[in-house]
Amino acid sequence: MRAAYYEQNGAAREVLRVGEVETPEAGPGEVRVKLATSGVNPSDVKSRQGTTRKITWPRLIPQSDGAGVIDQVGDGIAKSRIGERVWIWNGQWRRAFGTAAEFVALPAAQAVKLPDKVDFAGGACLGIPAMTAIHALSLSGAGKGSTLLVAGGAGSVSQYAIQFAKAAGATVLATISSPQKAKAAQEAGADHTIDYKREDVGERVMELTGKRGVDAVIEMDLAANAKLIPFVLRPKGSVIVYGTGAPNVSLPAYFCLTQSIRVQFFLVYELDTLERERAVSAIGRALEQGRLINRIATPTYALSDIAAAHEAVERGTIGNVIVKT
Known about the structure:
Helix content: 25-40%
Order of helices and strands: EHEEHEEEEHHEHEHEHEHHEHEHEHE
Strand content: 15-25%
Mean pLDDT: 96
Largest sheet: 7 strands, mixed
Radius of gyration: 20 Å
Distance between the termini: 11 Å
Number of helices: 12
Number of strands: 15
Shape: globular
C-alpha cells in the first residue's frame, strides 16, 4: 500500500516520504479500514518534529484520525462489520502505523460507525479534536446557566468545545486573534469573541459577566495564558487544560489557593475506557442529530502533498487539515 512515513524527526519536507509499505492485516479483535481521509492535528506535527516525543520505531506512519470503510475483520469480530463506514480515534497512539496510508488495522473499538449523512472528511476531524472537546466540557461542569471561556476559539478543539457547550446550555466567550477567527468562533456558536491582540481580555470578561468572572476556562496553552486566570475566573472556578506551549508553567498560586481554583490537566490519548465510551457516545448522538459542524480547512491535500498538509497545521490554518488517502 501507499503510505506517508518518516524515519527520523525533523522538518516536514526534510523527513516525510511517500512510498510503498507492507499492507496490514486485521489481527484478533481488530478491523482493517480502507482509509478515505486522514486528519492532521498539532500533536501529529509536534511528534514528527520531535518536540513532544522522539521517534521510537525504525519507520512511523503518522496521524491518529481518519475515516473510511472496514474491508477486513480479525478473529472475534462480526463479519457484518465489513463494509461499515467508520471514523477512527488513537490510530497512531503508541503504535508505528497511523492513518496517513491507504489502510490501517487497529482494535475494533477504535473504528466507530460514521452516519451516512457525514462525509469522510468530516469523519477524519473527530478523533482528537472532538473527543478532547467533549471530555474538557465534562470536566468543566459547564451547563445550563453557566459561563465558559474557550481559549483560541477558532482552533479545531475549541470549535467543538463551543458547540458542545452551547448544546449544554452554557454561555460561551472565546478568545481569538483576527476577524476571520472571530467569524469561525461565532459560526460555531460563541456568544462573544474577545480579540486578545487588541483587547484587554480580563476587562472584557468582567464586562461581559457583570464582574463575576466565568465559571470555567477551557485552555489550549496554559504556559501562554496562566497569567490571565485571576482576571477571568470566578472564585471556586475551574481551569481545564488540554495543552501547553512550554514544558514548565508558572501558575498564580496565591490566587488559586485563596480563591479555591481547580486546575485540571488531561491528555485525550490517556482517557480511560469509560471516559472514551462517553466521548464516543456523545459525538455519535451529535452526528446523528445533525448538530455538529465539522470545519474543514481548504484546500484538502493528496497523500503526495503530506508535507504541505503538515505545514498548514504549523501555520495555524483555520479548520481541520484533511489528507485524502
